């Protein structure tokens, strides 16, 4: 099956509290699960970077909801590519708090042709490698601590 992968960055119109992000995530997870979309959201309460993957029509529906939200500004699509591989298939929708420096670095990294490289089992593009490395590192850390952590799967 061919999936669609979409990554974008945005800035919140106002900083969001952990409670507000949790409420937003709950609604997004319910919708995303209903249409078969998975991925990960990185944030620092003001800056966001989200990677979505799933059926093309479903990913586009999620993107339409995100881009129509008044909570976002400066939305930038970093990547929108077909893929045969889901990189976060086991993540219903991960949510990770990330330093602003990482979010900025990811927004500036090379995303183009990322999925084609991943499917040939070659090294991931710099952007996808960094995203995956950060997500897996936080996941390992959270599992090791087994206590309250920023990881939400």
From TrEMBL:
One of its GO terms (molecular function) is FAD binding. This is BLUF domain-containing protein. It comes from Ideonella aquatica. PROSITE patterns: BLUF. The lineage of its organism: Bacteria, Pseudomonadati, Pseudomonadota, Betaproteobacteria, Burkholderiales. InterPro entries: Acylphosphatase-like_dom_sf, BLUF_domain. It holds the Pfam family BLUF. Residues 3-94 form the BLUF domain. It comes from the Bacteria.
